[in-house]
Amino acid sequence: MAERYIAHVDMDAFFAAIEQRDNPSFRGKPVIVGADPKRGKGRGVVSTCSYEARQFGIHSAMPISEAWRKCPKGIFVAPQMKKYSAASKIILKIFYDFTPDMEPISIDEAFLDISRSYKLFGEPMDVCRMIKERIKTETGLTASVGLAPNKFIAKIASDLKKPDGLVEVKPKDARAFLRPLDISRIWGLGPKTEKILKFHGISTIGQLAAMDSDRLFKFLGGRGLEFKELAFGIDNREVKTEGEVKSISNEITFEIDTANEDKIKSSLLALSDKVAFRLRKEDLKGKTITLKIRLEDFSTFNRSISIGFATNYADIIYGHIMKLYKSLKRGNKKIRLLGVKSSNFISAQITESLFEETENEKRENMHKVIENIRKKFGDKAIYRAGIKKG
Ligand code: TTP
Ligand code: MG
Fold this sequence. Notes:
Elements: E1 6-11, H1 14-22, E2 31-34, E3 46-49, H2 51-54, H3 64-70, E4 75-77, H4 81-98, E5 102-106, E6 109-113, H5 124-139, E7 143-148, H6 151-160, E8 166-168, H7 174-178, H8 191-199, H9 205-210, H10 213-220, H11 222-231, E9 247-258, H12 261-281, E10 284-295, E11 300-311, H13 314-326, E12 335-347, H14 354-377
Helix pairs in contact: 4-5, 10-11, 12-13
The structure holds thymidine-5'-triphosphate and magnesium ion.
């Protein structure tokens, strides 16, 4: 296989850096973007904070009241999403000037596969330097960049020298680079898995790579073996470019394989809800619904149903997903992954039958209410009954 050059770009203290840029008096000071602290009585959380604020132990998702206690003299500001989205758009445009193979991951980070394009600009590291410079010139903000042979290592590398970092990991150095790092740096390895591994004396990526596969399988199932492969620096995932949307799907891999019916049902409901929300955001409705299940032995099943009309309602999607789920016999095997997909789209503006119209009107109103709440308070503000938080 030809050598791959994957860059991961992540803006530094994104929301807070924008506030410091726009308010010169905030520069060099602890700035906390998030909910109103109300002198320590505020509810809600920290969105992010400047690196100066991080020295007080403040971080994203911390209760705002705690942040206030840690740094009452800090500058607390409410998020201004419009400004952040505008900066995000400029950054994405810059990326496209260097490669069409670009996968945005969130408002402030993306993977770029520059294997095909770097020669137009020089060496791969030159591309990374140019991207950082252009971001600085055009937005006044700093970004950290990791350059590596794959996504897994590039993401770790971009995080290592923040802020304003630039770290390259060559294929021959990958193992040595990963060896001393803490296992919590592995993308997708959550706190529960970290605890299990640390309990068994595995705290670095090097130790994980050296761990006996049978033992690892016993502790974590198939997921453990995937982590082990990453620990060896192997990751063949492609940078997914944004083409025309042909399907919308969400998946969840359980930290520990499960046969718990409540957990499975609430996960399927949460996935249906996420897919419906994204469909509505894209102004789409899908006629086909697909359930994906991967079992503990990695056998994978996709079951689809064409429902005769197009929908973007979570309850309808969930109803069909449950039918598909019940029709699948899995013996006594546990589930490791669940996925819900909607495809075969039409525009959400099209109504196909009169019956649908009246039914839809009622639902439409309910969903509009939900969406308004979400817009105002964020994605986590609303959970359907039956979805566990966290
Ligand atoms: P991150 O890239 O995770 O954080 P960051 O850019 O603020 O800081 P870092 O230098 O460590 O990359 O997230 C990007 C933005 O997303 C962040 O500025 C605010 C927002 N965000 C939240 O609103 N809530 C969260 O819990 C997190 C993690 C981020
Ligand atoms: Mg960031």
